[in-house]
């Protein structure tokens, strides 16, 4: 029994020593990137899928739990694959050219995005839209920082908020099919279901009556 414990401790020491080797750092960073992508994807998707599934999807409890598990797995897997691909390509380019340059990040991410997120499905669509909104804000700030556009004299955020909400509600009312299904469901709940009720039960307590009264 003691021999088994000694072997395990020796194995752990060897593994820790390996992790400290600088020459393996790039390869180990790729592996840990895969791990972090999987964990982060699960942490982000699981609560979101849980809320959206129980709010807007019908079906048995088993079906709902299966849907949550599938969405969580897909998000976790894709993010893990992307981080693995991105960091691997980044390390390969840096090794080939002897140094890291900004274009390496762009090219590696483009290839990873094409390979991992190129399939047009609900999970990938949500991730891309999430990133797109932040890219637009980031590019706007960068343009001001670099002097390509002048620094606004007043905070432009109220105008942006007004235009975003004005546009999305116009699309919902008149071109609903252009919006993502989960956004359609959310807006239907907020702006259409609030127009219908029969008594106090579905006015305050429930969104919709489940009986046939």
From TrEMBL:
Pfam families: Tim17. One of its GO terms (cellular component) is peroxisomal membrane. InterPro entries: Pmp4. PANTHER family: PEROXISOMAL MEMBRANE PROTEIN 4 (PTHR15460:SF3). This is PXMP4 protein. It comes from Erithacus rubecula.
């Amino acid at each position: 029994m003691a021999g088994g414990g000694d072997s395990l401790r020796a194995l752990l020491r060897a593994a820790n020593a390996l992790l400290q080797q600088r020459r393996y750092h790039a390869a180990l960073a790729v592996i840990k990137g895969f791990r972090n992508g999987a964990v982060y994807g699960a942490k982000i998707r699981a609560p979101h899928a849980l809320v959206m599934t129980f709010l807007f999807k019908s079906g048995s409890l088993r079906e709902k739990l299966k849907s949550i598990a599938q969405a969580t797995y897909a998000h976790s897997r894709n993010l893990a694959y992307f981080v693995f691909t991105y960091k691997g390509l980044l390390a390969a380019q840096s090794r080939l050219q002897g140094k890291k340059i900004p274009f390496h990040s762009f090219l590696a991410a483009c290839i990873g995005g094409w390979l991992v997120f190129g399939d047009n499905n609900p999970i990938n669509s949500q991730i891309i839209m999430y990133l797109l909104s932040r890219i637009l804000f980031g590019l706007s700030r960068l343009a001001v920082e670099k002097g390509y556009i002048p620094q606004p004299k007043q905070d432009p955020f109220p105008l942006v908020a007004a235009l975003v909400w004005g546009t999305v509600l116009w699309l919902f009312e008149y071109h609903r099919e252009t919006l993502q299904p989960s956004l359609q469901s959310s807006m239907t709940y907020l702006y259409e279901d609030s127009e219908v009720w029969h008594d106090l039960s579905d006015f305050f307590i429930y969104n919709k009556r489940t009986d046939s009264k």
